[in-house]
Amino acid sequence: DMFLTVFSFEDVAHIIFFVIGLILVLLVAIGFQAKLSALVLTVILFVGNLLINDWWSLAHNSPLRDFIKYDFFQMLSVIGGLLLVVTLGPGGVSFDEHKKMW
Q1: What is the pLDDT along the chain (102 residues), one digit of tens a residue?
Q2: Where are the alpha helices (DSSP H) in 1-102?
Q3: Distances from the Cα of 97 to the Cαs of 36, 37, 45, in angstroms?
Q4: Phi, psi of 61 (to 5 degrees)
Q5: Are 72 and 49 in contact (CB under 8 A)?
Q6: Buried b (16+ CB within 10 A) or exposed e, 38-63
Q7: Of 5, 30, 51, nearest in space to 99 by CA
Q8: Angle between helices 12-30 and 34-52 (to 10 degrees)
Q9: If 82 and its partner were Cys, which of 4, 30, 38, 56 is the partner (CB 3.0–4.6 Å)?
Q10: How far apart are CA 99 and CA 102, in angstroms?
């Protein structure tokens, strides 16, 4: 029950955005077109992070500011990991590496 509160399917756009994100995450996880998928996911997460976790727009004495700032930098670390996949590739156990052997 608590896990489902993470998802907010308020309209069709949220559902489409969630499905696209899920597909990109799965592609990166299995290593199929991982560099391209990680790059697209990086752009989506970066723009979303700037729009959603805008801690700089909150008052300096707001208690919510620290929570939003934490989420912002936590998402930046995820983006950094995706940029490593974009730069270095998915590795030897990926689907793309096994495709080269066929």
Answers
A1: 445 555 667 788 888 888 999 999 999 999 999 999 999 999 999 999 999 999 999 999 999 999 999 999 999 999 999 999 999 988 887 887 777 666
A2: 12-30, 34-52, 63-88, 95-101
A3: 15, 15, 26
A4: -100, 10
A5: yes
A6: bbbbbeebeeebeeebebeeeeeeee
A7: 30
A8: 140
A9: 38
A10: 5
Which residue type occupies 56? W
DSSP H/E element including 6: none
Structure tokens at 5: 């509160």
Which residue type occupies 23? I
